[in-house]
Amino acid sequence: MTLGSQFGPSQLRLFESGELRLDADFRSVRRVPLDGSSWVEHVSGWISRNEQLLDLLREIPGWEQRKRWMFTRLVEEPRLTAEYPVLSDAPVPFLRAIGETLSERYGVPYDSAWLNLYRDHRDSTAWHADRPSCRRERCMVPVVSLGETRRFQLRHREGGPTTTFIANGGDLIVMGGRCQKDWVHCVPKETRGAGMRISVNFASSVQATPG
After folding, report:
1. How many CA atoms lie less than 13 Å away from 170 in the CB half-sphere?
2. pLDDT (tens digit per residue) in 97-115
3. For 181, which DSSP code?
4. DSSP designation for 18
5. Are 112 and 203 in contact (CB under 8 A)?
6. CB atoms within 10 A of CB 97
7. Which end of the chain lies in a sparser environment, N or C, as judged by fewer CB atoms within 10 Å?
8. Mean of the per-residue pLDDT values of the chain
């Protein structure tokens, strides 16, 4: 499903005007340990004027509603997805700038990205871990949230209490340590009305290789 068309020069000038900015110093970072070997960092307001990036990304070609097996039947995922296996091919230059900043901060070469578009409060992501993009014992997975506020939840793979983060537009959430091995995460449906949200998930070919 395509939500729009290619960008014109006037849209790309947003980046030249300096209206979109990120906090390269990570001044509002807060680390929350999940256990002795897994953690989450939450950086509030990491990207300023995030709604401008949301508006650009919602118009990119290539959004599709994917299908997956759920027990014995094939069902449509309740969200749209777009993927850039090579981050340098992403049509929005600011995505590449984000990837470079994250790579420098966390020491991981983030070279690909996939985007999830939640159209309203009825769209969601079920409990899961990020595989096969994380095949190492320890990985760091950054997720940038744009647009509407949604809950981002984690719980241990073996059960137990749920840890909830409130992801506002412009926030960065990074899952680290053994988070992808020992924990699962989700974006649940909301009972109240909610507008559009896009999550930008950065991945690394290094972390996708067992080591």
Report:
1. 15
2. 999 999 999 999 999 999 9
3. H
4. T
5. yes
6. 15
7. C
8. 89
Query: Whole-angstrom Cα distance, residue 140 to residue 80?
Result: 24
Cα separation, 90 vs 100, whole angstroms? 13
Q: Is the pLDDT of residue 47 over 90?
A: yes
14-31 pLDDT tens trace: 444 457 899 999 999 999
The residue with tokens 């070919």 is 205
Q: What CATH class is the domain 29-203?
A: mainly beta
The predicted pLDDT at position 66 comes to: 80
Domain ranges in the chain are 29-203
Task: Please give the Cα distance from 12 to 80 (Å, whole number).
Answer: 23
Nearest to 142 by CA among 119, 182, 184, 114: 114
Spatial separation of the C-alpha atoms in residues 91 and 62, rounded to whole Å: 11
Asked whether the beta carbons of 149 and 169 are under 8 A apart, the reply is yes
Is-contact 120 193, C-beta < 8 A? Answer: yes
The two tokens of residue 176 are 């680290």
User: Which two structure tokens, joined as six digits, stand for 134?
Assistant: 């994380």
Number of H helices, E strands in the chain: 4, 15
Q: In the prediction, which pLDDT does 15 show?
A: 45
